[in-house]
Design goal:
alpha/beta, Nucleotidyltransferase, domain 5, six-stranded mixed sheet
Length: about 140
């Protein structure tokens, strides 16, 4: 099963693709958001190219489980994905993925690796791998 993952943001959306054979995910290029509107043409292209069976979207929560300012926008984005592509869209807890992404990138190349385009898509990959690990026995 091929699964697509998004780490939604108001300027960039991180993207990753994964599969349930090895339960690993690979980063794809970020998608730009302009004036609050994602680049739906690029999202459509990615979906047509990879033909995922499901989409996982990082669900932003504070450490205490309360919603963040971006949580509502993420839910709206998730609903729009479902309406446009008629496939399962699953929200998955993304707490600490940005911190983990920065740590991984810093350890692999120092400050020069800490670029937003890498952080967002690595976060999407971590979200997807976390979801696959939690759901691989289902």
């Amino acid at each position: 099963m091929i699964v697509l993952s998004f780490d939604f943001g108001t300027k960039n959306i991180g993207v990753a693709i994964g599969q349930n054979i090895t339960y690993t995910a690979n980063m794809l290029n970020n998608i730009k958001v302009k004036n609050g509107i994602p680049d739906w043409k690029k999202i459509s292209y990615i979906i047509k190219l990879w033909l995922p069976q499901a989409i996982i979207v990082g669900y932003p929560l504070n450490m205490d489980g309360t919603r963040q300012n971006i949580t509502k926008k993420t839910i709206i984005f998730s609903k729009e994905l479902h309406q446009r592509y008629l496939m399962p869209v699953i929200l998955h807890d993304e707490r600490l993925t940005t911190t983990e992404s920065k740590s991984i990138l810093y350890n692999s190349g120092g400050y020069k690796k800490l670029k937003k385009k890498y952080i967002d898509s690595l976060s999407a990959a971590l979200i997807l791998e976390s979801w696959m690990q939690q759901n691989h026995s289902n």
